[in-house]
Amino acid sequence: MSNLPLQFKLKHRAFAGLHLDYPAILTPMWPLSACRLPLFASKVSAGFPSPAADYVDKTLDLNELLVQKPAATFFVRAQGDSMLGAGIHPNDILVVDRSIEPVSGKIVICALNGELTVKRLVLEDEQWKLRAENPAYPDFPLHDDLELVVWGVVTNVIHAV
Asked: E strand or H helix at 145, and its extent?
């Protein structure tokens, strides 16, 4: 995959060390306390029921599962319906890692002309775009006149059912 142009990389890197003080942004508390919950060895059938073993294989710490680099991770709530096709619904919590390189195909959190948005970053026909995952929204071509700061790459979505 092709990397972002230099100006986007520099803005991304410059932001990576800053503390986020934004009302919709949540950052993990240090140190992360373990939250070990039972993880059953057998899988749950989403089709026809199947017999399951009644024992716990191990415990699962959600911090270990969702947060790979705590110092570079923050959480933000999604709003709107532009990313429904990517499984991001209104009020979902997005887990965002600032240390991951924002390359074509990744879903990113960015400030576009001062406004936060979540979109898929795409390089298509030598043109960078922010792409919604909902056909009701058009692609947003990126050009040098825009103020774009990539805050990080979305790694997980926490979605209530």
From this structure: none
Calculate the dihedral angle through the C-alpha atoms of 46, 42, 64, 14, rounding to the nearest 10 degrees: -30
Give the type of residue at 156.
Answer: N
User: What pTM did the predictor assign?
Assistant: 0.71
- Helix (H) or strand (E) holding 97, with range, is strand 93-97
Active site residue 43: no
Per-residue confidence (pLDDT) for residue 71, from 0 to 100 = 85
Residue 42: active-site member: no
pLDDT > 70 fraction of the chain, expressed in percent and rounded: 65
Catalytic residue, chosen from 42, 82, 99, 104, is: 82
* Separation of alpha carbons 139 and 155, rounded Å: 22
Would you say the C-alpha torsion 47, 51, 57, 58 has a positive or negative sign?
positive
